[in-house]
Amino acid sequence: MEMPKQIVVLRDFLSNRSSSMAVKYNQWTALLAMAKASLKAILRSPSAVIFSLGFPLVFILVFGFIGDNGISIKVGVEKGTDTSSYVFQALKKEKSLKLITDKSTTEMQDDLKKGHLTAIISITSLPRQGAAPSCNVKVSTSTASVDKIQLFNSILRGVIYQADDNFYPRASIAKVEPMIVLPGRRYKTIDFILPGLLSFSLLSAAVFSTAFLFYNLRQTLVLKRFFATPIRRIYIVLGEALARLVFQVAGAILIIGIGYFAFGFTLVHGWSTFLEMLILTAFGVAVFMGFGFVVSGIATSESTIPPIANVITLPQFLLAGTFVPVDAFPSWLQPVCRIMPLTYLNDAFRKIAFEGLHLWNVGLELGVITLWGIIVYIVAAKVFRWE
Fold first, then answer.
1. Which helix H or strand E contains 127, and what residues bound it?
2. Nearest-CA neighbor of 72 among 94, 88, 90, 104?
3. Bigger pLDDT: 207 or 14?
4. Which of 77-91, 221-235, 247-261, 290-304 has the lowest mean pLDDT?
5. What DSSP state is assigned to residue 53?
6. In what order do the strands lie in the sheet with 132-141?
7. At what angle do helices 55-66 and 189-219 cross, to 10 degrees?
8. CA-CA distances (angstroms) from residue 372 to 114, 247, 291, 345?
9. Which of 74, 224, 266, 298 is least enclosed by beta carbons within 10 angstroms?
10. In the CATH hierarchy, which top-level class contains the domain 73-167?
């Protein structure tokens, strides 16, 4: 069985170190050498690069290109509809509407039943009443798209009311004067999605890579060879942790950079916000590695690592506010979401990046993550095995 690339790199490192034992041993030099060897092994691993960088980058690109135009209402247009009418032309200008004109009535009715269409409209022009156009609008809907029907009806009524105001100006009992009282910034889709994906990439990479690494080191007796050298056990862990910190921070720089320059991700205070996010990245990796140590300690075989790791990462991916705000979940489920460490890392990233808070302003979030770190490292110390 071929040894993993990282094991080979570490084995070569041990061989080189054993040939120079006459020189006074320096723990920190050994730590840096291990970190360098481990970092090379991570960069040579396609799976590590894909899951740590590729996965979040693909999602960021998808959501970045979607932007704030995610709501799309498909409406079928009956054959024979007067497409030159005032109402049709006004509906055509609505960005959230997609008018379907190339399907038959049977096809549109079938799509309406399946919920693929929100409504089917038929517009018939009537004789003009003076200078104002006149038409009859028939709307067919289905219970399959009940969530979007109200939105479409409000758009249609708005178009008609606007037309009435244009052609039949009349007095009103009240006049609304919009005023901008306070300046603000627009909260874009990327401002919500990017911190969540960055947090989850840190969690998944820290858990999976740490668990697989130390399990393989133990099973291939590489750790046992480490014990033949003067290096202390704590420096073995610190060397591996340093390699992952460097890799994940570099990945965070890439992810934040693409989000900022390509899609306008908000960094309120510029460089200072960027640096605080990198510090928070390193902190998150350090805490989440504890979960990886726990998994490597309780796993009985390499095939049991993914299921155990998924039990830790998947619920947080779904419930910690990565794609959907925690407030959108049912009230009975929100307390579960609020005990997850990823929830607080997501909140901290968003508060620093968009709201302009600093690390010392997110004490609650950092406190909860620190508490999780203490608990998980206590458990890791109990279950972790060197041999």
1. strand 119-129
2. 94
3. 207
4. 221-235
5. I
6. 97-100, 73-77, 119-129, 132-141
7. 170
8. 46, 23, 10, 11
9. 224
10. alpha beta
Reading the block at residue 48, the tokens are 């590590």
pLDDT at 22: 44
**Sign (positive or negative) of CA dihedral 331, 333, 335, 339:** negative
Token pair 């096809």: residue: 107
CB proximity list for 228: less than 8 A, separation 6 or greater:
18
Residue 78 class from Cβ within 10 Å (0-12 exposed, 13-18 middle, 19+ buried)?
A: middle
Closest Cα to residue 275, out of 173, 352, 167? 352
Cβ distance 348 to 366 under 8 Å? yes
| Residue 143: CA count within 13 A, CB half-sphere | 0
SS3 333: coil
Domain ranges of the chain: 5-66+188-383, 73-167
pTM of the shown model: 0.76
